[in-house]
Amino acid sequence: MFSAELKSDTLKGLVNIISTLIDEVKFTITPECMTLKAVDAAHVAMIEMEISKGAFESYSAEDTELGLDLDKVKGVLKLAGAGETIKMEQDDSTGKLVFKVGNITRRMSLIDTTGMNDPKVPQLNLLANIKVPIEELQKGIRAVESISDHITLKAGPEFFELSCEGDTDSVSLKLDASTAKISTDTDVCSMFPPEYLANIIKAIPSGTQVNIELDNDYPVKLVFALAEGEAKVSYLLAPRIESE
Question: Least C-beta-crowded within 10 Å: which of 29, 59, 81, 197?
Fold first, then answer.
């Protein structure tokens, strides 16, 4: 059994983040929270999310799993105005999830979660830790994403840099300790595919502080909170390794 209410803006923010990687998702439901772990089809990026009951206007659940088509959920979101409450309730008799938005009721078939296994989350101990306002990252992404087929992230004790270099042009965003909170004893650098990094950074809502964990030729880890801290997101992106 699952029944909950939450603001449309909250649901939209959560769906936008998840759908940067996948269209179909399995939520693991407990009486205290909803969680998911998923990788994209190319196994380049992974997302882990925990949404506590505090993110909802109301929440009542037993242990269960829900498989959702996020494109269909986006269709529900189009029916809701800003700040409007969306009600969700699992109908065990029909195997559907019922959405109520104002006077509109949408019954949505659930996806079979039998073959949807939770990926194993790698345990990483990365050397650099940088805390950056999302607005700075979004400005950097807008500047670099059309220049090259890779984005370079660098950090040192006094700086954090997002850059790329193409055949004719180059561009970079460089932040110091006045804008970014930087914690590292050494310089680190890794390259990443721009479309993955751009999609996740663009989807993160304004006002969010993003914690970036970085190391030499290791995955980058982006950690941030949504829904006033009640939803926690961890995003891992594999590096692009240049061949010798």
Answer: 81
Written as six digits, the tokens of 220 are: 């980058």
Q: Which of 199, 202, 208 is nearest to 227 (CA)?
A: 208
CA distance 181 to 179: 7
Residues 90, 97: Cα–Cα separation, whole Å: 5
Residue 54 phi/psi, 5-degree rounding, is -65, -15
Query: What is the phi/psi pair of residue 172, to 5°?
Result: -150, 155
Strands 24-29, 33-39: pairing is antiparallel
Distance of CA 187 to the CA centre of its chain: 26
Per residue in 195-237, pLDDT (tens digit) is: 999 999 999 999 999 999 999 999 999 999 999 999 999 999 9
Interatomic CA distance for residues 151 and 48, integer angstroms: 23
List, in sequence order, every residue forming a beta bridge with 69; answer none if it has no partner: 24
